[in-house]
């Protein structure tokens, strides 16, 4: 699907986005009122079986899980408000003063990787880089990690055509090994050979990420303001060339990202240095440990042995910074646009994204947790723990609701659905404060997102070596191998998944008193000893 054939690529101007109470139009308020009215009618109509003696324990457990999860969400929301409305505005003010005083980085380096991207998208990306270089008044270099002459020609032609008078240098590093990680590693090694100083700032960005206006001027002064700041990442908005429902889903995920990133950044850390765009001090990128981690990051697994990471370079850079207890920040008003071109099945692309994101999180989360709370602020360490707990607790709630429905009837399940409708509405309304418009559909998309994401994580946790990435030539790793050892490993992964899910299910239905654990006497009678 070509961007031209679907719709024109047009970036929305953030200054025109509705903010504050302007987003809450009369139509939206009417829709929310009708939504609440329907829920109220159902509450008054459906017989109340929530406090039936048979289901009191289930209701108490669901309530406890809800208090925990929503309390945790509320904690993030409060922290995000503190960072977004109190802490960061002070940082932004000082940063603007530094920029207005005339301070500039000596040189701006853009480390960009791309692979046979659409011409229209590549030109938009390079145009945004050129504009930021011109506006900053500083010389810049684009370090292009390339795997194909196709992308090189597009960028060279564009710079010749539209940036002849701009002080910008294009350095092409053609990779001789496939994969994005190899491309980044070769670029970093090239930087080590050429005069890139330790105090220079390097922008890591993907070939489908368009810089928003002023992104550079909002990030760079923070490194002058905070000498211990080693990396920062930015806000994102999505331009989706594909089904409308995927665009809505991606926009909701970016709202979640904004809330979480601001909460994490209050502790001087983030949980990922997003590969779409992050800024680093060059002195870290020139270290062999950093380069090797990006090039050949791997994991030793009890089942799959030693295997390399295919994607997730942003998680590797983050893990390096976290391991060395380095200061990281999120810059909420430095905006960029991620252009997602959905070709083929939208559902298949959605599942692929879930598997890639969840796999990257699981592969890196375990070793980050192992660093312990002394290597990072305790809140950040607990966020990593929570990521691994939430995938199980998310599955417990629907299991308990179905179990209770079997015990006392379908009305309990309807009550649970109403609870989901109201609770997810509340959470989605909070998310909408981070969205450029209020989307009532977020209520149900949020729940389905959580449910599918938890299921994919449970599937991936025993298959960490299985990786597939539709970008950069549709790479895959550990997917197609018919050897005896690989077949045995796949069977073991299936067995482990089955046992884990079975234990979760049996524990749930036992707790809900649908089944009873056989007593010692019952077992002896069954085998004829009594």
Which descriptors would you attach to this protein?
58% helix, two-stranded antiparallel sheet, alpha/beta, 530 residues, 8-stranded mixed beta sheet, 18 helices
What topology emerges from the helices and strands here?
Layout (H helix, E strand, L loop, with lengths): L2 H4 L19 H20 L10 H45 L7 E7 L4 H18 L3 E7 L2 H14 L5 E7 L5 H14 L7 E6 L2 E3 L3 H11 L3 E13 L2 H22 L11 E5 H4 L2 H9 L1 E4 L3 E4 L4 H11 L3 E15 L4 H25 L7 H31 L1 H23 L9 H19 L6 E3 L1 H4 E3 L6 H28 L8 H7 L4
Parallel strand pairs: 1-2, 1-4, 2-3, 6-10
Antiparallel strand pairs: 4-7, 5-10, 6-7, 8-9, 11-12
Helix pairs in contact: 2-14, 3-7, 3-8, 3-13, 4-5, 6-10, 11-12, 12-13, 12-15, 13-14, 13-15, 13-17, 14-15
Q: Beta-strand percentage?
A: 5-15%
Low-confidence stretches: none
Structural class: alpha/beta
Gross morphology: globular
Task: Characterize the largest beta sheet: strand count, sense, and whether it forms a barrel.
Answer: 8 strands, mixed
Helix content: 55-70%
Number of strands: 12
What is the number of helices? Answer: 18
The topology string of helices and strands comes to HHHEHEHEHEEHEHEHHEEHEHHHHEHEHH
For the CA atoms, what is the radius of gyration? Answer: 25 Å
Distance between the termini: 71 Å
Spatial order of strands in the largest sheet: 3-2-1-4-7-6-10-5
In terms of quaternary structure, what is this? Answer: single chain
Summed over residues and divided by their number, the pLDDT gives a mean of 89
């Amino acid at each position: 699907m070509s961007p031209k054939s679907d719709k024109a690529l047009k970036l929305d101007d953030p200054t025109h986005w509705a903010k504050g109470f302007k987003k809450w139009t009369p139509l939206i308020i009417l829709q929310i009122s009708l939504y609440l009215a329907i829920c109220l009618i159902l509450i008054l109509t459906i017989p109340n079986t929530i406090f039936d003696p048979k289901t009191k324990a289930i209701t108490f457990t669901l309530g406890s899980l809800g208090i925990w999860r929503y309390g945790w969400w509320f904690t993030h929301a409060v922290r995000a408000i503190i960072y977004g409305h109190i802490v960061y505005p002070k940082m932004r003010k000082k940063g603007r003063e530094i920029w207005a005083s005339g301070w500039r980085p000596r040189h701006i380096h853009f480390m960009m990787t791309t692979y046979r991207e659409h011409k229209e998208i590549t030109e938009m990306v390079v145009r945004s880089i050129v504009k930021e270089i011109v506006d900053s008044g500083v010389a810049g270099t684009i370090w292009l990690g390339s795997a194909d002459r196709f992308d090189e020609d597009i960028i060279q032609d564009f710079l010749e055509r539209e940036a002849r008078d701009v002080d910008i240098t294009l350095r092409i590093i053609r990779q001789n090994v496939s994969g994005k990680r190899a491309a980044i590693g070769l670029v970093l090694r090239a930087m080590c050979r050429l005069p890139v100083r330790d105090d220079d700032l390097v922008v890591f960005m993907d070939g489908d990420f368009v810089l928003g206006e002023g992104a550079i001027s909002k990030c760079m002064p923070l490194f002058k303001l905070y000498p211990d700041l080693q990396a920062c990442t930015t806000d994102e908005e999505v331009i989706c060339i594909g089904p409308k429902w995927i665009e809505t889903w991606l926009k909701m995920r970016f709202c979640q990202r904004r809330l979480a990133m601001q909460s994490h950044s209050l502790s001087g850390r983030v949980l990922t240095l997003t590969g779409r765009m992050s800024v680093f001090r060059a002195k870290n990128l020139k270290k062999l440990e950093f380069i090797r981690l990006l090039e050949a990051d791997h994991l030793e697994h009890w089942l799959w042995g030693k295997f390399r990471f295919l994607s997730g370079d942003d998680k590797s850079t983050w893990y390096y910074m976290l391991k060395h207890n380095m200061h990281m920040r999120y810059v909420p008003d430095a905006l960029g646009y991620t252009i997602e071109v959905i070709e083929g099945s939208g559902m298949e692309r959605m599942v692929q994204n879930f598997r890639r994101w969840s796999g990257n999180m699981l592969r890196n989360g375990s070793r980050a947790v192992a660093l312990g709370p002394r290597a990072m602020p305790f809140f950040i360490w607990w966020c990593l723990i929570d990521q691994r707990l939430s995938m199980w607790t998310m599955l417990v709630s629907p299991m308990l609701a179905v179990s209770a429905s079997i015990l006392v009837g379908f009305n309990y399940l309807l009550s649970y659905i109403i609870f989901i409708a109201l609770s997810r509405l509340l959470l989605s309304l909070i998310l909408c404060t981070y969205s450029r418009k209020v989307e009532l559909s977020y209520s149900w998309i949020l729940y389905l997102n959580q449910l599918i994401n938890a299921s994919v994580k449970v599937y991936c946790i025993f298959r960490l070596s299985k990786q597939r990435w539709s970008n950069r030539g549709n790479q895959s790793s550990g997917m197609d191998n018919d050897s005896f050892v690989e077949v045995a490993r796949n069977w073991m992964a299936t067995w482990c998944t089955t046992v884990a899910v079975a234990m979760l299910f049996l524990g749930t239905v036992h707790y809900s008193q649908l089944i009873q654990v056989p007593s010692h006497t019952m077992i002896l009678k069954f085998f004829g000893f009594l």
